[in-house]
Design a protein that fits this description.
- It comes from Pseudothauera nasutitermitis.
- InterPro entries: 4Fe4S_Fe-S-bd, Ion_transpt_RnfC/RsxC, Nuo51_FMN-bd, Nuo51_FMN-bd_sf, PduS, RnfC_N, Soluble_ligand-bd.
- GO terms for molecular function: 4 iron, 4 sulfur cluster binding; electron transfer activity; metal ion binding.
- The protein is an alpha+beta fold and 442 residues long.
- Helix content is 33%, strand content 18%.
- The chain is built from 18 helices and 18 strands.
- It folds into four domains: 152 residues, 3-Layer(aba) Sandwich (Rossmann fold), CATH 3.40.50; 93 residues, Ubiquitin-like (UB roll) (Roll), CATH 3.10.20; 109 residues, no CATH class; 63 residues, OB fold (Dihydrolipoamide Acetyltransferase, E2P), CATH 2.40.50.
- The radius of gyration is 22 Å and the shape is globular.
- The longest helix has 15 residues.
């Protein structure tokens, strides 16, 4: 199969990155690279998706890796997994070609940050403000490459998503749901809450980088990695509910410039300028730092270590970085710093996941979330038109139209970054809004 055919099929199937912000995968596969890296770290505590997918669908994962290597012209394929994912390693190993290998990652956070994953698996370092392609690497996660294999070999579009439902639920599990399924139904499939509903709050994604959910009516999207229920007074919920003014006030009042946020920042450890303690100080005192210090906030991965683990007085440099990033992007600012030497203490300063779980108060929720083969058929789905980085897709069907699962219901405008969107159930189009298409099961 020609490269352009692989790229075309991946685009038409609506494949995007399943482990992050949803970057369109066909764009990555249309580039040239030396290495294709499978990011199977899944370093966010509590989530159990990729490790189980890799074990259960090893053949499709390796096939997706082979297709990605063919499309990009890569000479090597690397599957990065943690040693504790023994079932996945055992399933994948006999399927690997001579130009593929498994790399065993340390059980640290954030091993899944692609900058850290690349360094661990290849020794290469992504420059500040750069992307993996700058050093000849393309990174995809497990679910993405499985979707690539299905798109190319079966012409199967992305209509479902695997996710973990865990935390304060009766039966933690990992399951597959049609896109657009309300997260409320995912919670019900996990047996409901194990605490009173009035005392619960929810995180969409992992406990470190996931967002606070305002409503369980929110739908499953291509990038939904998990649903975590926690007590509303849990520190992870309190931090997410803190307003920016109080965060900055706290930083101005109690920051003692101990440097721990900088010394444990993964991007700083890898050789990026990014010094959270200096950014906090410059914000506190009217931005007296050099411009490059503030602009380096653009390289923050928002992993949350500075907030959740490093700071001894509960400041959130990450929240300040987020605000600066939004401001700089609005202004069109760019950061162009030099790659410095990696911290000689980097090996000892990466954060063990077990220690992070304890610090976050998640030990009692850090349990297995076994795979469920249960098939769920929602009565309605709310399929978002923007489940990827880039422009929203434009509806190509009308209200009242009958649609089939897998049918394209929204296309991308010409020359816009994004992918088509497909129906996830058989049914009738009930409504078309600015951000979603609602389909009622027939």
């Amino acid at each position: 199969m020609e490269t352009q055919d692989i790229v075309r099929k991946v685009y038409e199937a609506g494949v995007v990155g399943s482990g992050g912000a949803g970057f369109p995968t066909h764009v990555k596969l249309g580039a040239r690279a030396e290495i294709v890296l499978v990011n199977g770290a899944e370093c966010e505590p509590l989530l159990k998706v990729d490790q189980q997918l890799a074990a259960r669908h090893a053949d499709e994962l390796v096939r997706g890796l082979a297709l990605a290597m063919q499309a990009t012209g890569a000479r090597e394929g690397i599957v990065a997994l943690k040693a504790k994912y023994a079932e996945a390693i055992a399933a994948i190993t006999p399927l690997l070609r001579a130009d593929m290998r498994i790399h065993i990652l340390q059980d640290v956070y954030p091993a899944g940050d692609e900058v850290i994953t690349i360094w661990m698996a290849t020794g290469r370092r992504v420059p500040p403000g750069g992307i993996p392609l700058n050093i000849g690497v393309v990174v995809n996660n497990v679910q993405t490459l499985i979707n690539v294999a299905r798109a190319v070999d079966r012409d199967q579009p992305v209509t479902q998503r695997c996710l973990t439902v865990t935390g304060a639920v009766r039966q933690p599990l990992t399951l597959t749901l049609p896109l657009g399924t309300p997260l409320r139904e995912a919670l019900e499939l996990a047996g409901g809450l194990s605490i009173p509903a009035a005392d619960a709050a929810f995180i969409d994604g992992g406990p470190m980088m996931g967002g606070l959910l305002e409503s369980l009516d929110a739908p499953v999207t291509k990038t939904t990695g998990g649903l975590i229920a926690l007590p509303a007074d849990h520190l992870l919920i309190r931090r997410r509910r803190a307003d920016l003014r109080s965060v900055i006030s706290m930083a101005r009042t109690v920051c003692e410039q101990c440097l721990l946020c900088t010394e444990l920042c993964p991007r700083h450890l890898i050789g990026h300028e990014l010094p959270p303690h200096l950014i906090v100080r410059s914000v506190n005192y009217n931005h007296v730092a050099q411009p490059s210090v503030l602009l380096s906030a653009l390289t923050c991965s928002e992993c949350g270590i500075c907030e959740a683990y490093a700071c001894p007085v509960d400041i959130s440099p990450m929240r300040i970085n987020q605000e600066l990033k939004a401001q700089f992007r609005k202004e069109g600012a760019r950061y162009q710093g030099e790659l410095r030497k990696a911290d000689p203490m980097i090996e000892g300063r990466l954060l063990p996941v077990g220690r992070l779980v304890a610090r976050l108060g998640l030990t009692r929720f850090n349990v297995k979330a076994p795979w469920s083969d249960a098939v769920h058929a929602p009565e309605r789905v709310w399929i978002r038109l923007r489940q990827h980085i880039g422009a929203p897709a434009q509806p190509c069907i009308g209200v009242g139209d009958a649609v089939r699962c897998g049918q394209r219901i929204a296309d991308m405008p010409a020359n816009a970054l994004g992918v088509p969107v497909h129906a996830s159930i058989d049914g009738v189009v009930e409504s078309i809004g600015e951000d979603a298409i609602v389909i009622r099961r027939a």
